[in-house]
Each structure stands twice: as C-alpha cells, then as structure tokens.
C-alpha cells in the first residue's frame, strides 16, 4: 500500500480565503476598470455621434441661408464667402484663444498623452474641439471629423479618470486609450477598426495588458452601440457590393499599392511643409492667425458654390465616384485638386482631421486606376470600384502605417467583406514601399513636430532675472 505524501503543517492549517483574497481583489479592480471603460465608451459614442449631427446641422443651415432671403440681399458669392469665413473664424478663434492643442487632428496629442509627454486639458479640449470643429467643418473646408472625435474620446477617458479620482497610472492610461478607440468607433461605425487603431497605430504608446485590451474593446463596442442606437446599423458609405476579383488580377492590386506607397511618403512630407508655410504666414500671432484662417474658410465657401467636389471631408463624394459618374481624366484632376485643398485646410491648423480626406483621395485615384486597367485588360472583367476600395485602405496604410486598421476600417465602412484579399495585398504593398523609401507615420511625424516647436517656443521665452 503506497504511503501518503505528507504536506507541511503550515499548508494544512492555511485557510483557503487567504489564497483567494488577492485574486478576488484583482477581479474587483478589473471589473471597476471595465465599468469605467463602459462609461467612457458611452460618452464617447454620444459625443462622437452628436458631433456628426452638429456638423451636418451647420452645413444644412449654411445651405438654407444661401437659398433663403439672405441670398437676395447681397450677391450669392459674397454671402457664401462671408458665411464660411465666419464659421471658420469661430473654429480658429476657439483654438488659438483657449486650447492650441485642439488644432489639427488631435490624434498626435492623444499619442503624446499616452506617452506622458502631452497634457490632456479635457475641460478645454472638449468644448473647443466640438464647437470649433462645427465651425471649421461646417464652413466647407476639407477636413474630417474622425480626428476630432478620437481626441474628444481620449479627453473623455481622462475626464472619467479625474471625476472618479483614479490614481493608478495604468488605469488612467487604459481609459485614455479606451476613449480614443471609442471615438473612432463612433466616427465611422467601425468597432473593430477602433480597437485595432489603438493597438496597431498607437502601439509605441499603448501599454499592452489583459485589462487594457479589455477596456479598449468594451469602450469601442459600447460607443458603437450608442452610434447605432442614434443613427442606424447601415454602413457609413453606401456603395456597390463587389465579388472577389480573379486571382490573376491580384498583381494589379499590388501595383496600386506600390503607387500609393510612393505617394504616401510624398504626401506626408507635403503636410509638414504646408504646416510650416502657414506658421511663416501667421507667425502664431492671433490677428494674423484669424485673418488667414477666415480668408481660407471664405475661399472654400466660394469653392463650395462652383466646385463642390473639392470641398468637405470627402465621405459624401465616395458613393458618387464609385457609381461611375466621373471619367478617369476628371478623377485624376479631382485627385490633384483635393491634394491641394487638403494641404491648405489641414496645414492651416484648423480643428479637423485628415482621415476622411485621405479616404477620398484613395477612392479617386483607385477608381481612376481601375478605369484605366479595365480598358487595358477587358478580358479580366475588372470592376473599377474594387480598386477604389483598395485605394482607400492603401493610402491609409501608407500614410498612417497601420495596414490592419486600414483594412478593417474600409471593410466596415463599405460592407465589402469579399474584397479582404485585394485589400490586404494593396495595403501590404503600400506599407512595404513606404518603409523602403524611409517615410514616417503621419501622426508620429506630427507629434514630433509639435514637441519640437514647443521646445523652440520655450527657448524663445524671456528668462526671469535672478
């Protein structure tokens, strides 16, 4: 008969609850963090969704004023200029007066905050980004609402941390990241892209842990549920549903990715040059800053009357492009024109993002590429719209350097799940060539520029006398 093993006396007398208490304590902490992530996601969803409604309200009101009695008092072009200039003035003034960190996209600010090198003044950023974004985007400028929504989501994450007096730095970091994910999910009705954006694009700053990943997922899902409750569950972009292309045509998608990889590096450098040019013009003085921004907004009010395709974020343009309303030559001209207008608006420091303008650029060039290849290879039965969708993901991958996020974002926005293989090939080609050319991710580049300029301004400040 085998002998029983003898256990130490201390283990026999140890109560089970002493062993379980640490685990129970950790579970309670995890549940509390997830609850806060849920709160962050709900508020991010509300703010992001109603921000979209507010921008549409301003745009519709501007159009009604132009069509109404006010348009009969003065020439239409003058009214259009004054209204858009006034709306842009609101955005630029709020940014320069109350929260300079709310200028531009805002995503680099969240990345800097996750790295502990940028402050999150949520009590300033939230109202400035919301109402300033309403003015800038409502004026017709080529800006997107996704960057502002991500920054406002991150600000909500920090606000919840402060209101609940969260002291743990890892928890505060997780809620900040969760807010950013919820903001993107609410901006594009894309919960998977919101989750992956934080984990892929913000990977240098994101602190990977089981609880932080769960917090990001909870926030993204809850924000998206709020979005769908207020709006609906349809895809953000309405466009044809495509079947998978023939395998022999996949080489053309790779070629498109190579072209976007080259263009992405060039485009990122142009953005920095545009920002530097505007700084030289207004020299960061309020009067020059407001005059420059207002004149720019007014010019886009005029452009909205005569060439509306060159104005706005571009999401509304994508369905008309993919239904074949434009020829290849006109698409390429619009592509070049929107490059210029995107650089002007984003480079000026207006409170708006660059996500949507980039997606529109990818659609324009991608569809033009599709039309050209369709005429060259009629035997392949190519649908040009396939290349438009692939182009959206490829340009995002080349500039932001987050291919998985770009793939998920495009699929969720267009509901074209059958095109996942062409999207992967195109985005992969874009990323590889952008890396080979030495290009830097756009948001990292913008954050580095912000930190550099901040350091230079501090050096120029007069030092107190001893």
TrEMBL record:
Gene Ontology MF, one: voltage-gated chloride channel activity
Family matches, as InterPro entries: Cl-channel_core (IPR014743), ClC (IPR001807)
Primary location class: membrane
Cell location: Membrane
Membrane-crossing residue ranges in chain numbering: 31-51, 74-95, 122-143, 175-199, 206-227, 247-268, 289-307, 354-373, 385-410, 417-437
Record's GO cellular component terms: plasma membrane
Pfam families: Voltage_CLC
UniProt-recorded name of the protein: Chloride channel protein, CIC family
Keyword list, A-Z: Chloride, Ion transport, Membrane, Transmembrane, Transmembrane helix, Transport
UniProt topology in membrane: Multi-pass membrane protein
């Amino acid at each position: 008969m085998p002998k029983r093993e003898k256990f130490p006396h201390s283990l026999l007398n140890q109560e089970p609850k002493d062993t379980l208490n640490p685990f129970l304590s950790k579970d309670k902490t995890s549940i509390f963090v997830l609850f806060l992530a849920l709160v962050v996601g709900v508020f991010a969803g509300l703010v992001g969704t109603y921000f979209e409604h507010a921008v549409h309200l301003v745009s519709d009101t501007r159009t009604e004023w132009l069509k109404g009695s006010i348009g009969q008092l003065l020439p239409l072009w003058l009214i259009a200029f004054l209204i858009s200039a006034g709306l842009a003035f609101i955005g630029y003034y709020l940014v320069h007066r109350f929260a300079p960190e709310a200028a531009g996209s805002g995503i680099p600010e969240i990345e800097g905050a996750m790295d502990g090198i940028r402050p999150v003044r949520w009590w300033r950023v939230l109202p400035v980004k919301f109402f300033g974004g309403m003015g800038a985007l409502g004026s017709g400028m080529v800006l997107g609402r996704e960057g502002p929504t991500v920054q406002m989501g991150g600000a909500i994450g920090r606000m919840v941390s402060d209101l609940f007096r969260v002291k743990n730095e890892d928890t505060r970091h997780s809620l900040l990241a969760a807010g950013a994910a919820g903001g993107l999910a609410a901006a594009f009705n894309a919960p998977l892209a919101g989750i992956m954006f934080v984990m892929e694009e913000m990977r240098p700053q994101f602190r990977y842990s089981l609880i932080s990943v769960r917090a990001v997922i909870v926030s993204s899902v809850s924000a998206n549920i709020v979005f769908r409750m207020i709006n609906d569950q349809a895809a953000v972009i309405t466009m044809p549903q495509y079947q998978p292309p023939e395998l022999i045509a996949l080489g053309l998608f790779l070629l498109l990715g190579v072209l976007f990889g080259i263009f992405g590096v060039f485009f990122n450098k142009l953005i920095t040059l545009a920002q530097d040019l505007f700084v030289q013009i207004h020299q960061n003085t309020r009067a020059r800053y407001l005059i420059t921004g207002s004149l720019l907004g007014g010019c886009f009010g005029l452009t909205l009357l005569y060439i509306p395709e060159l104005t706005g974020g571009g999401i509304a343009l994508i369905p008309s492009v993919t239904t074949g309303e434009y020829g290849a030559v006109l698409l390429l001209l619009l592509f070049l024109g929107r490059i210029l207008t995107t650089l002007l608006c984003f480079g000026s420091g207006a409170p708006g993002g660059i996500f949507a303008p980039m997606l529109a650029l990818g659609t324009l060039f991608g569809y033009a590429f599709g039309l050209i290849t369709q005429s060259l290879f009629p035997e392949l039965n190519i649908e040009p719209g396939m290349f438009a969708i692939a182009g959206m993901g490829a340009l995002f991958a080349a500039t932001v350097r987050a291919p998985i996020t770009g793939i998920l974002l495009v699929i969720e926005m267009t509901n074209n799940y059958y095109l996942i293989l062409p999207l992967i090939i195109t985005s992969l080609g874009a990323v590889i060539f952008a890396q080979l050319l030495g290009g830097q991710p756009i948001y990292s580049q913008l954050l580095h520029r912000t930190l550099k300029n901040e350091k230079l301004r501090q050096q120029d400040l007069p030092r107190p006398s001893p």
